[in-house]
Specification:
By secondary structure, this protein is α+β, with helices and mostly antiparallel strands. The chain has five helices and 18 strands. Strands 8-7-17-16-13-14 form a six-stranded antiparallel β-sheet, with no helix packed on it. The longest helix has 18 residues. This is DUF3662 and FHA domain-containing protein.
């Protein structure tokens, strides 16, 4: 299975089947992925015998109509695009000068079915943030203790009758994380194994009731200088989705 096939299937799962209904016309998410991959390949530069540097700041401009459709996916699309960029770079042996940033913007000068990609290399320090991905929504863990359940007094409230009012808590000290069941009725599993409490590793999956919760630790930029966004002169491609033969 190719990288873009994996992306499309992953996105379909992330948006719970809304993919086919929402994107029958105009820009397709897989076409954004293809354009990003081509931009990275085009801009990758050999800086030493053992290092090929790829741009890590990527901005995709869309027509207002296409941008509105993509925005309807919430964080699911950006999460999948970010994962695809990093996976493609790893497969090609590219490295980045700093954390990867992918953004989508609306440009009234673009017509529906077209997009423009601008990119730049932005150096910076990396800090790490813990997040929970639940039903396509990303919840940053800013507190040391986060309670999840169906009760209105939980920090993250779930519309899931299979969960207790206060079902689990996630403990995060900035470096390590732990999940603890709070005496729930239906119990808690971590990567398919029933637990009362256990340490969390990145990309592990907690299930409570019918809800899956994925714990992730993501990089965020802490630039040493004010970041320079991609400029129009950085753009190397304008992609017209009406020419479906351009999908890579």
């Amino acid at each position: 299975m190719g990288l873009l096939d994996s992306f499309e299937k992953g996105l379909e799962r992330a948006v719970n089947g809304a993919f086919a209904k929402t994107f029958r016309s105009g820009i397709q998410p897989v076409e954004i992925a293809s354009a990003l991959r081509r931009e990275i390949d085009t801009k990758a530069a050999v800086v030493s015998r053992d290092r090929i540097l790829a741009p890590n700041t990527l901005e995709v401009s869309l027509s207002p109509d296409d941008h509105a459709r993509m925005a309807g996916l919430g964080t699911a699309l950006l999460t999948e695009l970010h994962t695809l960029v990093e996976s493609h770079a790893k497969a090609q042996g590219y490295s980045f000068a700093g954390p990867v940033s992918v953004s989508l913007t609306a440009d009234p000068q673009l017509s529906p079915g077209t997009l423009r990609v601008a990119s730049a290399t932005q150096e910076g320090q990396v800090s790490w943030r813990a997040v929970l991905d639940i039903d396509g929504t990303r919840h940053p863990l800013s507190a040391s203790r986060t309670v999840i359940g169906r009760g209105s007094d939980a920090d993250i409230t779930l519309a899931d009758s299979g969960t207790s009012r206060k079902h689990v808590e996630i403990l995060w000290d900035g470096e390590r994380a732990m999940v603890r069941d709070l005496g729930s009725t239906n119990g808690t599993t971590l990567d398919g194994r029933k637990i009362s409490e256990a340490p969390l590793t990145p990309d592990s999956t907690i299930r409570i009731g019918r809800t899956q919760i994925v714990f992730r630790v993501v990089a965020q930029a802490r630039p040493s200088a004010p970041p320079r966004p991609p400029r129009p002169s950085d753009a190397t491609q304008v992609f017209d989705a009406r020419d479906r033969g351009g999908r890579g």
